[in-house]
Design brief:
Strand content: 15-25%
Radius of gyration: 24 Å
Number of helices: 9
Oligomer: single chain
Length: 301
């Protein structure tokens, strides 16, 4: 950041403590619209407070109309509620130059004819004019993981538990993530890079599950084993082995030898698992919920 913004004094503020309430899940499930609205309100409130403290005249934002369902009415409501009408500049929300007025005032005078939703292609063109590349660390990437389809549901499920750790949060980043009732998680690493990342997240009480064939998927199974009966432990193992076998076989129904061991134990055991005819069929197993995550395409250079 220092290299990209040489000569500019920047101040950052941590919002970690406030972010947990954005992930509240109601009976209809996680709402990205509600989370975005709460996030915008928090950012604007903090910005307004800092603006008054340092005696600044305006707040400049990179907001775009229509992003995650937030339109002109919602953005105007935020500025009015916080008492900063006419002092919030949103250059990506208007078609024409301001000509001396604030964006808020411009929007009120011109109505919807002056408003626009900046498209990704527009931003790419503007970035090119400014000499910014898509690989620029400040101009690309997923700024908020909650915008990834499926990630909000994963976080809401984790936060609904009595407690969670940073380790548990990091598991949410993997594309293949399963909740198995009651209170069990099965996280898969498919390629070698994912396996290296998952390897660093194993805890002593986690179960490692993998096929006997080379280059197959590897699973981390996390459960409160001491609270489970032997029958429940066996059932968890069978479900996890089935998940691994199904991913290993690529949709071919068969029986697959699967190895497993606790990280705190040196003994490796073997079980023959049934691979289903499709990965989609795993969610039809009673108590198994596959929480899909749509990963973004890598930014082009």
């Amino acid at each position: 950041m220092r290299e990209d913004w040489a000569g500019t004094m920047l101040r950052t503020q941590s919002l970690k403590r406030e972010y947990r309430r954005f992930i509240e899940s109601n009976e209809d499930g996680f709402s990205l619209h509600a989370a975005c609205m709460q996030c915008r309100a928090l950012l604007m409130a903090r910005s307004a407070r800092y603006m008054e403290r340092v005696g600044a005249d305006f707040i400049m934002t990179g907001e775009r109309l229509g992003r995650h369902g937030l339109g002109c009415e919602e953005l105007e409501w935020l500025t009015e509620t916080l008492g900063v009408e006419g002092r919030v500049l949103r250059p990506l929300c208007h078609r024409a130059p301001l000509e001396g007025t604030s964006l808020t005032e411009w929007g009120r005078l011109s109505g919807s004819r002056s408003l626009r939703t900046a498209k990704d292609v527009d931003l790419a063109e503007w970035a090119a004019e400014l000499g910014l590349e898509p690989s620029n660390s400040l101009g690309s990437g997923v700024r908020c993981k909650l915008t990834l389809p499926g990630f909000g549901e994963r976080v809401a499920s984790l936060f609904a538990e009595e407690s969670f750790t940073l380790n548990g949060l990091r598991l949410l980043d993997f594309a293949h993530y399963y909740n198995v009732e009651p209170g069990t998680k099965v996280v898969l690493a498919i390629d070698e890079e994912e396996k290296r990342e998952l390897q660093n997240l194993f805890l002593p009480q986690d179960l490692r599950v993998y096929p006997s064939t080379p280059h197959g998927p590897m699973a981390l199974v996390r459960a409160d084993w001491e609270e489970r009966t032997e029958a429940e432990q066996r059932q968890i193992l069978e479900v996890a082995a089935c998940i691994v076998a199904t991913h290993a076989c690529g949709g071919r129904a068969s029986t697959v030898p699967i190895y497993y061991r606790l990280e705190s134990d040196d003994e490796t055991l073997l079980v023959n698992a049934r691979a289903l005819g499709s990965v989609e069929g795993l969610s039809e197993i009673p108590g198994v919920r596959g929480m899909a995550l749509l990963m973004p395409e890598p930014a082009s250079a």
